[in-house]
Amino acid sequence: MKRISIKDVAKEAGVSASTVSYVLNDTPTESISEETRKRVIAAVQKLEYVPNLNARSLSSRHSNLIGVLIPQTEPGKEFMFSNPFYGELLSSIEYTARQNGYHLLLSGTQEDQCYLNIAQNRGVDGIIIVGTYPGENLNALKRAGVPIVLVDSYVKDPDFHTIGIEDKEGARMATRYLIEKGHRRIAFISGSIREYGVNIKRYQGYCDALKEAGLAVEESAVYSGTVDYEYGLAAAVLYAERGRKQTAAFVTADVISMGFVKGLTQQGIGVPDDISIVSFDDVYLANMAYPSLTTVHQDIGEKGRKAVELVLEAAKAKEHQHTECILPLHLVERDSVREWREPT
Amino acid sequence: MKRISIKDVAKEAGVSASTVSYVLNDTPTESISEETRKRVIAAVQKLEYVPNLNARSLSSRHSNLIGVLIPQTEPGKEFMFSNPFYGELLSSIEYTARQNGYHLLLSGTQEDQCYLNIAQNRGVDGIIIVGTYPGENLNALKRAGVPIVLVDSYVKDPDFHTIGIEDKEGARMATRYLIEKGHRRIAFISGSIREYGVNIKRYQGYCDALKEAGLAVEESAVYSGTVDYEYGLAAAVLYAERGRKQTAAFVTADVISMGFVKGLTQQGIGVPDDISIVSFDDVYLANMAYPSLTTVHQDIGEKGRKAVELVLEAAKAKEHQHTECILPLHLVERDSVREWREPT
DNA sequence: CATATTAACTTAAACGTTTCAGTAATTAAA
DNA sequence: TTTAATTACTGAAACGTTTAAGTTAATATG
After folding, report:
1. CA distance B154 to B163
2. Does residue B88 surpass a pLDDT of 60?
3. Can you tell me the distance from the alpha carbon of A283 to that of B229, in angstroms, rounded to the nearest whole number?
4. Given a cut of 80, is residue B326 above it in pLDDT?
5. Position B14 pLDDT exceeds 70
6. Which of residues 17-76 of B touch A (CB under 8 A)?
7. Strand C contact at CB of residue A32, distance < 7 A
8. Which residues of B touch A270 (CB under 8 A)?
9. Closest to A79 (Cβ–Cβ): which among B63, B88, B140?
10. Which bases of chain D are contacted by protein, using any atom under 7 A from a CB?
11. How far apart are CA B211 and CA B142, in angstroms?
């Protein structure tokens, strides 16, 4: 089971190793006669030679590898993709990368965990970090010397490229839609609201919409937990305990909505009859749900594609040139909202 | 932005590069004095040295990298994870790998595509292939010389390790359950039924259960398409067109069930009132659905864990020792099935 | 015709590790 | 007290590529 190296091919074709390398890489600065080229190709095929990319990376200092870091939301929680959003995004990233001849080096991340391993030492050509903010590792990350794209993070740092969506505007849109439908008491249900994250922006959008309509933001209408199905269930219980004060809810992730609707149903609260819901993301799930979710649609496929493009462009560029990409949103009307007329 | 190498550390600590390497790897055959060890560690920290794993792989011929190949079901379809099963499985694989100090090299695969790149040349320590059967590339794959674990494939080849579930028995269980509930005409809805795949086994289980109960397998009750939501929708239309002959359906994937239920609902056909459904997989989705799906539960987390374990064990072993792992299944009763009494 | 250019290669260094084979100094055994 | 074993290192080869620099031989230029 001996590995076949470039030297074996060279010997077989009766040329030097470098010639083989030139043929294989189509090195533009080097000229190879048609005849030798054919001999080399033939030898490659005969021996079924496949170059060792580790050696190539070592020598050429690029690896055709993109590091992808996806948050593992909870420490013990195995299923970091429990939010289907990540799966869809990763899928798009993988596909785009592959079309460009790149592979993915994938790793989940916990908040405090050191990203450095994957970043620095595998020799990736770029890194896509989704969802979390790098915190203390931020500076260490820079030293990796490769382009870094932050997806859905509000870290402002010219050393990182970012790609995101109009979170605030999307949330405003969603909330205003509910107001237009006649709702006056609207809950806000989301994952943790913290700096650099998307939820704080969505919260701001929610507040803005309320204020614009002359409505007050009520403490007890704000539910903040984790971005998963379970929190949706919990929020439903909380909602009932707090006396079902709101006639509608803006939920900042479809996956939370799924749990919320389920929790409500279990308590005999109907959607949209008793409470209307506008959600966020428009993952595949949103349309499968019953009732199907009216939700703020974001183009997850495009997000993934852009992320890869950004990385590849930045990897090509000699000078670091900070880029920021914001994708637009729009509301998709489905079956989880109804008009509300205040009982007189 | 010069990369810091082991030589820089060696110089800083006043020792040779090999000593640094020994310290860093805790090489058991080598003895290092406590004093030098400390000096080296200090130098490493001072220079913030991180070893280049490409070079390490090249030299030591192992990479702490596991290649993971996930099928991209349809050629143009970007979202290879449109079946949440893959996301959950990948998540488990990633987590387990990371706990063991491994990273994942991820790639989607199309049927005809050559897996070799990822397999041979990145120097992965093992490969996990999920869902598809390698076909012609099978032999090429063997030559990679690393352990290969096939997940959910019925390729019988002692050179590959396999991990799967009791597909046939699970399907039999599901179908028998429907029969016990009084159903006599039961549809079978699945992805393509082909050799080496899981669906052919599930089809056999379905047939077995029917035969055991003295029921005939009817051609028109068998729906075979692709494993996705869209096919579920299509199957619902087909079901109506064919005259709603069956009172129940065994659907071989939750994601198809989701589409099937939605399609039925759109045509005013109620689940479980008009037709009962038993599904397969028990992805997260199954419980979120409305009605929640009665389904054959498989432990996806365990599947991923076992896959990684198998790879790592095999990588450690000097002799190739074929292993086969079959995980058990059980039925989870939820809300998509009702008792059926034949109208008299 | 002598010289410069080009085409078609080859040589060898470099990439950053690991690891085998030494080596010198110290300690243990005979 | 000599020899053997152990400790604590170092040197250099090897891993499989890429690539800058060099070398011919053939062709073009003045």
Report:
1. 9
2. yes
3. 13
4. yes
5. yes
6. 48, 50-55, 57-58, 63, 65, 68, 72
7. yes
8. none
9. B88
10. 7-12, 14-21
11. 40
Q: For strand D, is any atom closer than 7 Å to the CB of A7?
A: yes
What is the reported pLDDT for B190?
97
The confidence band for B115, taking pLDDT boundaries of 50, 70 and 90, is: low
Domain A65-166+300-327, CATH class in plain words: alpha beta
CB A189 within 8 A of CB A199: no
**How long, in residues, is chain B?**
344
Q: How confident is the model at residue A116 (pLDDT cuts 50, 70, 90)?
A: low
According to CATH, where is 1.10.260.40 located in chain B?
A: 6-51
pLDDT tens digits for range A133-151: 666 666 767 777 789 999 9
Of B63, B84, B95, the CB nearest to A84: B84
- Beta-carbon separation of A106 and B94 below 8 A: yes
pLDDT digits (tens, 9 = 90+) for A249-269: 999 999 999 999 999 999 999
Per CATH, which fold does B6-51 belong to?
434 Repressor (Amino-terminal Domain) (1.10.260)
Q: Which positions in strand C are less than 7 Å from the protein's CB atoms? A: 7-12, 14-21
Q: Which residues of B touch A118 (CB under 8 A)?
A: 103
- Confidence band, pLDDT 50/70/90 cuts, at residue B217: very high
Q: Is residue B276 a contact partner of residue B247, using CB atoms and an 8 Å limit?
A: yes
Query: Is the CB of residue B117 inside 7 Å of nucleic acid strand D?
Result: no
Helix/strand/coil for B200: helix
* Tokens 């959607």, located at residue: A271
Q: How far apart are CA B129 and CA B89, in angstroms?
A: 12
Distances (CA, A) of B197 to A244, A307, B251, B285: 50, 34, 15, 23
Residues A191-244 have pLDDT tens digits of 999 888 899 999 999 999 999 999 999 999 999 999 999 999 999 999 999 999
- The closest of A141, A53, A143 to A102, measured between CA atoms, is A53
What are the residue ranges of CATH 3.40.50.2300 in chain A? 65-166+300-327, 167-298
- Rg of chain A over all Cα atoms, to the nearest angstrom: 26
Please count the helices (runs of H) and the strands (runs of E) in chain B: 13, 12
Domain topology for A167-298: Rossmann fold (3.40.50)
Query: B3, exposed or middle or buried, with CB in 10 Å at 0-12, 13-18, 19+?
Result: middle
Residue recorded with tokens 């005999």: A268
Interface contact flag, A288 B290, Cβ < 8 Å: no
Is any Cβ of chain B less than 8 angstroms from the Cβ of A114? Answer: no
- Measure CB to CB from residue B57 to each of A54, A103, A262 and give the nearest one: A54
For B130-162, the pLDDT digits (tens) are 987 666 666 767 777 789 999 999 988 899 999
- Chain A residue whose CA is closest to B59: A55
| Closest by Cβ to A288, choosing from B106, B122, B229 | B229
Task: Find the nucleotide nearest A52 (Cα to C1′).
Answer: D16
